[in-house]
Amino acid sequence: MTDQFEPTIIGFTCNWCSYRASDLAGTARMKYAPNVRLIRLMCSGRLDPTFVLRALSEGADGVMITGCHPGECHYIEQNYKALRRFLLLRRVLTGLGIEPGRVKLVWASAAEGARFASETTTFVEEIRKLGPLNWGKDDDGPQTADDGKSSIVHGQEMEVPA
Amino acid sequence: MTTNGKPKFAMYWAASCGGCEIAVLNTHEKILDVDANFDVVFWPVAMDAKYKDVEAMEDGSILLTLFNGGIRNDENEHLAKLLRQKSKIMVAFGSCACEGCIPGLANLSPVGDIVHTAYNTITTDNPNEIYPRTSYDVPEGELHIPTLAKVLRPLEQVVDVDYFMPGCPPESHQIAAVIDLVIKVVKGEAELPPKGAVIGAGDSTVCDECPRARNVKLIKEFTRIQDIAPVDPDLCLLEQGIPCNGPATRSGCMARCPGVGAQCIGCYGPAEGVMDYGARLITAFSSVIDATEPEEIDRILDGIPDPTGQVYRFNLAGSLLKANRDAWKVK
Q: pLDDT tens digit string along B221-276?
């Protein structure tokens, strides 16, 4: 065993293309990083941003969303919806202090097992560089008001004049 | 101890603006019903009472406590726990207590920055950079002022809550209806809703009460409401490119803001069944964008300058991520 950080990644795949791409990668015995837990949706358009936030809040270090290539959606144009949600979600996550790179959108057709495998491995490496999301640091207790600025707030020179 | 046989009522504000108190007073003559039917034992904004008076009460002796405000410091937390212990029915009253509201937006900043901003910005006359100390020794003993917590937490994250009453503040007619209900319960004429219920609000969305017409129009840009002149009085604001929080927001206010030409900002919190308010709004806003190329979508999204503040304006502290990495916990 090494001390290398092994990220936990949740992958949302669509039933018609990208899940089949992962299937193909499996049957073709392609090697790729084992860190992704796949959850199959009927379509990437089913991806409620809540799923992503829930995954991050419950311990995932990254989330991979995969769908059919633009123009090839089984439900005509739902992957465009996924794209729009993804782009807005990424902005919101940035505002929350979460690296936008922790969420990735990948298009993969049913024939692209190799692409699925390589994109997964790449993403795992990217998350490994970002490191774990830091969980459980809060003790719920009250914190002094000078948290992080102690030299300014509580220095002796800050004696309150009479 | 009072001997008039009336059930006891308490109201307390923690980290909040005071609007909830005003909303209660805004029930006009209904406030007399409160006095007629309850013995008001603790309500710092309206009457003089000491914390030690509450501490001396028997556990569970207060029938109804309306608790407004989020938990921002150790005094808030102490009072929340104390009133929980002394009360039979604890209501998280108003958006701050339910979901963090505007004070919860401070969870985006470290507490040191908040203190620094409050005491040392260009508009603050503080040349010697004097900051408050949370405890200070004087000849008479140690003085203590409330100490800020790392993050603001909604009431539910600190104590057990029986009911939630959303709104910033809750609408006065809704408050009156809830007061009426509790009085009926006291008289044995009605039953309380199941624990954990949202009271004094609807179970649909603001759009459901909004009189504006909705079509399937797609937009090419988001814009601020003040930059559109004139705003179409009959058409859905979102379809005019104005980010309106109505699609994710709980009904109950009779769509006051969109009804008069201002966008819904989401003060009634997440609608029934919405797990994360911001996520639902991300979906709603995405659905009106008329573009399929990432570059164009990004250009349209530039019209929402602060997407995080927009979709979590009232719900940051109550959201799935609670906005502050330090506050996240593994369940």
A: 999 998 988 899 999 999 999 999 999 999 999 999 999 999 999 999 999 999 99
Nearest to A96 among B291, B294, B321 (CB): B321
B95 C-beta neighbours (distance < 10 Å), count: 33
Q: DSSP secondary-structure letter at B301?
A: H
**Cβ <8 Å between B297 and A58:** no
Rounded average pLDDT over B146-155: 90
Measured between beta carbons, the chain B residues lying within 8 angstroms of A87 are: 294, 297-298, 301
Task: Provide the terminal-to-terminal Cα distance of chain A, rounded to the nearest Å.
Answer: 62
Cβ A103 vs Cβ A49: under 8 Å: no
Chain B residue numbers touching A95 (CB-CB < 8 A): 108, 306-309
Q: Are B307 and A96 inside 8 Å of each other by CB?
A: no
Q: How far apart are CA B277 and CA A40, in angstroms?
A: 24
Per residue in B297-329, is it b (16+ CB within 10 Å) or e — as a string?
beebbebbeebbebbbbbbbbbbbbbbbbbbbe
For A14, B42, B60, B238, the CA distances from B39, given in Å and listed in that order, are 60, 9, 15, 47
Name which residue leads in pLDDT, B69 or A154.
B69
Residue B117 has pLDDT above 90, yes or no: no
The ipTM of this complex is: 0.91
Distance, CA of B251 to CA of B19 (rounded, Å): 19
Q: Quick one: tokens of B290?
A: 């008329």
Contacts of B110 in chain A (CB under 8 A): 147-148
Kindly state the average pLDDT of the residues A100-111.
Answer: 96
Burial of A70 (0-12, 13-18, 19+ CB in 10 A): middle
CB distance from A145 to chain B under 8 Å?
Answer: yes
How large is the C-alpha radius of gyration of chain A?
A: 21
Give the closest of B133, B301, B319 to A87, CB-based.
B301
pTM summary value: 0.89
Q: Which residues of A touch B305 (CB under 8 A)?
A: none
Q: Are A85 and B294 in contact (CB under 8 A)?
A: no
- pLDDT score at B82: 97
**In terms of Cα–Cα distance, which of A51, A25, A41, A30 is closest to A111?**
A25
- Picking from A105, A129, A151, A150, the residue whose alpha carbon sits closest to that of residue A13 is A105
Our CA-based measurement puts residue A26 at a distance from the nearest CA of chain B, in whole angstroms, of 31
* Closest Cβ opposite residue B112 in set A80, A136, A148: A148
Q: Which helix (H) or strand (E) holds A10?
A: strand A9-14
Tell me the shortest Cα–Cα distance from B241 to chain A, in angstroms: 15
Residue of B nearest to A87 (CA): B298
> Range with the lowest mean pLDDT among B16-20, B119-123, B250-254?
B119-123
